[in-house]
Amino acid sequence: SIKINGIRVSSDPKRTYQLILPGKKAACFINPYTGEITGIDDGKGFFMKIMRLHRWLLDEYKRDGSFAWGKTIVGYSTLVLAIIIISGLVIWYPRNKKALKNRLKIKTKAGWFRFLYDLHVSGGFYAALLLLILALTGLTWSFGWYRDAFYTAFGISTTSKQTHAPTSAVPPKTAGERGSKKHPKTDYTQWAEVLADLQSRYPEYKSISIQDGSATVSTAAYGNTRGSDRYSFDPATGKITEIQLYKDLPKSAKIRGWIYSVHAGTWGGLTTRILSCLVSLLGAVFAITGYYFWIKKKLRKSKQR
After folding, report:
1. Cα 113 from Cα 153, distance rounded (Å)
2. Sign of CA dihedral 92, 127, 141, 243
3. CA dihedral of 147, 70, 120, 277, whole degrees rounded to 10
4. Coil, strand or helix at 225
């Protein structure tokens, strides 16, 4: 048998239910009307590999925070990108109004070289702000010192407790106490009771996730899309025992979700996700055109000698 760690239910009646399985990002998708399994994700597929490439260059993720080459290379590359964007804006700044007018246009009928040049200069200006935001937010995952400075810039103490879940007055069990009892078998019928209860409380929810003893309700389609209300319940009866509303959380518990939402472009819905994707693609194009102009300039100088 396969252990089910949790379930995620979307408000969209056409979406499948997602069963959370053991293993990082592993999941099973089922039709809520027929019970048919429509797909299984072992957490090692194409998109997971792309995410690992994006964050760690396919290196292993070190949960203990120890040194990792992939994460370090990505971090310093992003830092260099931020410096290049800022210095590029300084170089771009025009000396007069006529130059400003020319640097805000992209000419499409003056040949390929002129088009690529205008795309790099003018297009780079239009994309620079969002590219810089993506770079600056991404750096919070790479360096602890940068993350602390970033939080401090927003008036958030790095020593503040950033957990989302409510605290418990019950002292933690010792290793002996934990080993003396076996965990009772999960009663999934209570999950159904909790789901029905939360659906009645949130008629316009976006998604509801339930695991043994806790549940989260996401309602945000814009802004901090990772913000959610959290509930604790008795696994034996399904009765709600604790409630932690997102609106009552301190800023220190909200900022991580905001950083992710801005970095991934989810804060403005599908529009900002597409915009962030296009700007990211343009960032790669600007790197290629930048090298192209640099090489062309070097070749021109070598011919003049």
Report:
1. 42
2. positive
3. -70
4. coil
Which stretches within the chain are classed as H helix?
46-56, 69-92, 97-103, 112-118, 124-138, 144-153, 175-180, 188-201, 251-264, 270-304
| In-domain check, residue 84 | yes
The answer to whether residue 275 is domain-embedded is yes
Using an 8 Å Cβ cutoff, are 226 and 217 in contact?
Answer: no
The predicted pLDDT at position 101 comes to 84
Token readout for 149 is 């400075």
Helix (H) or strand (E) holding 39: strand 37-41
CA–CA dist 133, 151 (Å, integer): 15
Instruction: Answer left, alpha or beta for residue 169, where phi above 0 means left and psi between -120 and 50 means alpha.
Output: alpha
Range of the domain at 278: 63-158+265-304
For the stretch 49-98, pLDDT in tens is 999 999 999 998 887 778 899 999 999 999 999 999 999 999 998 888 88
DSSP state letters, 75-92: HHHHHHHHHHHHHHHHHH
> Number of folded domains in the chain?
1
Tokens standing for residue 85: 């964007």
175 in any annotated domain: no
Classify residue 174: in a domain, yes or no: no
Q: Are 50 and 41 in contact (CB under 8 A)?
A: no
pLDDT of the residue at 1: 64
- The phi and psi torsions of 17 (rounded to 5 degrees) equal -80, 145
Does the predicted TM-score (pTM) go above 0.90? no
Single out the residue of 89, 87, 71 nearest to residue 140, CA to CA. 71
Residue 233 three-state SS: strand
Contact assessment for residue 84 and residue 120, using Cβ atoms and an 8 Å cutoff: no
Q: Which residue matches tokens 């801005």? A: 262
Token duo for residue 153:
């810039």
pLDDT digits 0-9 by tens, 129-171:
999 999 999 999 999 999 999 999 988 877 644 444 443 333 4
